[in-house]
């Protein structure tokens, strides 16, 4: 096997990102690259489309066979099984405004119960913390027939799904999972806004969810 070369990978998952370096053997297939991205970023193989100069790469061919060389940049677009995300603000042109959620209903406050051991802000969750929350939520709400492999993504990935994405993955109970997740995002956004107002009293009230 030849020595690994350095390429750059830019993942388009609907949130602002910078490309990052990736050392890989050009004799590996695109499918294997997707598996490596899944292990590192949490996006499943089926949710990734890999492009080089705007052209899609074939999973069964090696990177070298498809013209990839050192210092090449690959674009990986996350499609989440082509599920539309209804959570983007109407008329918004910002890629950072993905999670737009209703206010928390005090009568159904998810924080009244024992909580999963994850960061308070779901947007910061890695894929393991998503799994921890998913396990907690399915037990808390008695949701059955949940396939954890369908949620192999980070917190920002969950933000993009919307209720349709949750229901696609969990037809019976996906809306409940979506509601719990969105209430947590709402609380995190409010906390961020209060902190911003405290630190910058004269700052604008506008803020971004990213």
UniProtKB/TrEMBL annotation:
Pfam families: SAM_PNT, ubiquitin. GO terms for molecular function: sequence-specific DNA binding. Transmembrane segments: none annotated. InterPro entries: Pointed_dom, SAM/pointed_sf, Ubiquitin-like_dom, Ubiquitin-like_domsf. It comes from the Eukaryota. Residues 5-79 form the Ubiquitin-like domain. Residues 104-188 form the PNT domain. CDD domains: Ubl_ubiquitin_like. This is Transcription factor ETV6. It comes from Stylophora pistillata. The lineage of its organism: Eukaryota, Metazoa, Cnidaria, Anthozoa, Hexacorallia. The gene is Etv6.
